Structures are given as structure tokens and as C-alpha cells.
Amino acid sequence: MVRPRVAATRVPQDVEMAELIANLQARLYAQEQENQGITVTEACQKFNRLARLCPYLLPTKGERVRRMIQMFRPEIVVVVDNGDRPPLTVAECVSRALRAEFHLTEAKEEKTR
Predict the structure, then answer these.
(1) Is the per-residue pLDDT at 77 higher than 50?
(2) Total number of domains in the chain
(3) Do 91 and 47 form a contact (C-beta atoms < 8 A)?
(4) pTM for the complete prediction?
(5) 41 FRET partner, CA 20 to 30 A, in 23, 68, 69, 80?
(6) Out of the domains of life, which is the source (predicted)?
(7) Nearest to 31, CA basis, from 58, 52, 49
(8) Does residue 7 sit within a domain?
(9) Is 41 within a domain?
């Protein structure tokens, strides 16, 4: 009789998984607090890294957009999330944020002149 080959896998305990998820969410919150001084490009890089590492934290498009908006500085969030039509995709969110960052940088340069 030939036995079927079964791959040896270790199934994590529910408690361990819950602790892992809580730890990752706490780290995500801490990183959001650090994001106050980063550029849009740096925020996108961090977001992409987190999205690859923790895909279960971003299950829907709406959740991805919401998390992406949280990565931006407050003055950019106001511009991106404002308006009659909120961003529906991450790409649209990033596009608005880049434009807002450009205009905010230009306005700061004008004030210093």
C-alpha cells in the first residue's frame, strides 16, 4: 500500500495569530504617526511594502484607499479627501496627493521669497 505524501505544515494557534495581528496593527498605527513629515513618494513606498506584507489588512479597494489617505501628511489629506467625488482607487488617491504636494511646496516657496 502506498501512502500519500503529506507536506508537514505547522498550523499556528488562534491565540498566536490574534497576537500577531494586534502587533502588526499597533506597528501600523505607530508608522501612521511617523508619517507626518514624509513625502507622497515615501508614503507610497511604505504603503506598498505594508500591502505586500499584510494583505489581509487591506481586503477591499475602499480599505486600501482609506489606509493610503492615512499615510499622507494632514495638509495633503485635506486636499485629497475633499471634494464632491472622493478618490475611488489608490492610483487616483496618489495622483491627487502628488498634485497637492506640488502646489503646497510651490506655495511655501512663494512665501519664502
Answers:
(1) yes
(2) 1
(3) no
(4) 0.65
(5) 23
(6) Eukaryota
(7) 49
(8) no
(9) yes
